[in-house]
Amino acid sequence: MITSKLTSKAQTTIPQPVRIALHLKEGDEIAYSIEAGRVVLTRAPTEPVEDPLATFGEWSSEADQRAYANL
42 near 51, Cβ under 8 Å? Predict the structure, then answer.
């Protein structure tokens, strides 16, 4: 069994064998799920983040693209 300690700030280091098994590197996100009293740790999917403003069609004209291109 692999263990790690929890700090006073509720932080822990993910042990190297776990990082290797999940192919984790700096900046990766981790997903947690609670199943039958246990916590399952997995690597979070790396899907592209959608633009939250993409649904507002009134802001996507060519004039808008030019106006906001250098912001």
Answer: no
Q: How far apart are CA 44 and CA 29, in angstroms?
A: 5
Cα dihedral 59→64→65→68 (10° resolution): -100
Phi, psi at 17, each rounded to 5°: -60, -35
Tell me the pTM. 0.59
For residue 56, pLDDT over 80 is answered with: no
Rg of the chain taking only CA atoms, in angstroms: 20
Domains of the chain: 1-45 (2.10.260.10)
Residue among 58, 32, 31, 65 at smallest CA distance from 46:
31
Contact of 33 with 40, CB cutoff 8 Å: yes
